[in-house]
Amino acid sequence: MRRSQPSPRSRRSPPRTAASSVRIIAGRWRGTRLPIVTAPGLRPTADRIRETLFNWLLGECEQSRCLDLFAGSGALGFEALSRGASHCDLVELQPAAAAQLRANQQQLAAEASIFCCSAEQFLADPPAPTAAGGYQLVFLDPPFAEQLLPTIAEQLERSTLLAAQCWLYVELAAEQPFAAPPSWSLHRQRNSGGVSYRLYRRVADRATIA
Fold it and tell me: Is residue 84, in this structure, part of any structural domain at all?
């Protein structure tokens, strides 16, 4: 959900209108609006994209342990919690945005933990409780201009943080190439307004699948 300022590499990235709040679409907090930090480059994933994503997931959120690795507004992580996820770890680099995530977590009394650090730092040295059982649902929506996805995906795959079988959501500029790790199988993909959004299914040992 976090977007950096335009650069030569990102000039074709789709613009989005800045927002001061995000709306939870469905679940126990349906219709709740959560304040977000008004800052350059900080924009939530569009409602229509979130709705499509969670339709793809159907009941997979129920009791899942989630990771929102570039949380920004927290729109994806809090939506998952609203729809029945058991816990979500939200990672955000910007201190002001992380502070707002904590405030929203407290407002909702949500089962969530907020980490103010980079995605790379979190993956290199995650707090011990996050590794128990592995994440069943991961959201990856890094700043388009920084081209972080290939490195982060490989770092995540090499870590011990993922459940053997889990879902991974990836959002990137439509023209941006991305080769997922071999264990990630593309389940659904769609483009909207210059954004490509994809849902992968990870199977750690593909030889065990008939």
Answer: yes
Residue 167 φ then ψ, to 5°:
-105, 140
The CATH number assigned to the domain holding 125 equals 3.40.50.150
- Tell me the C-alpha to C-alpha distance, in Å, between residue 153 and each of 72, 158, 164, 183: 18, 9, 15, 11
Does residue 186 come out as left (phi exceeding 0), alpha (psi in the -120 to 50 range) or beta?
beta
Cα separation, 102 vs 104, whole angstroms: 5
Q: What is the pLDDT of residue 13?
A: 40
Please give the residue range of the domain that contains residue 161: 8-208
Query: What SS3 string covers 75-127?
Result: HHHHHHHHCCCCEEEEEECCHHHHHHHHHHHHHHCCCEEEEECCHHHHHHCCC
Q: Domain for residue 1, yes or no?
A: no
Q: What is the pLDDT of residues 39-92, one digit of tens each?
A: 666 778 899 999 999 999 998 999 999 999 999 999 999 999 999 999 999 999
Which of 169, 150, 146 minimizes the C-alpha distance to 79? 169
- Indicate the helix (H) or strand (E) that contains 52: helix 47-57
Q: What is the pTM for the complete model shown?
A: 0.86
Amino acid sitting at position 76: L
Q: Stretch 107-118: mean pLDDT, rounded?
A: 97
**Tens-place pLDDT, residues 156-203:** 999 989 999 999 999 999 999 999 999 999 999 999 988 999 999 998
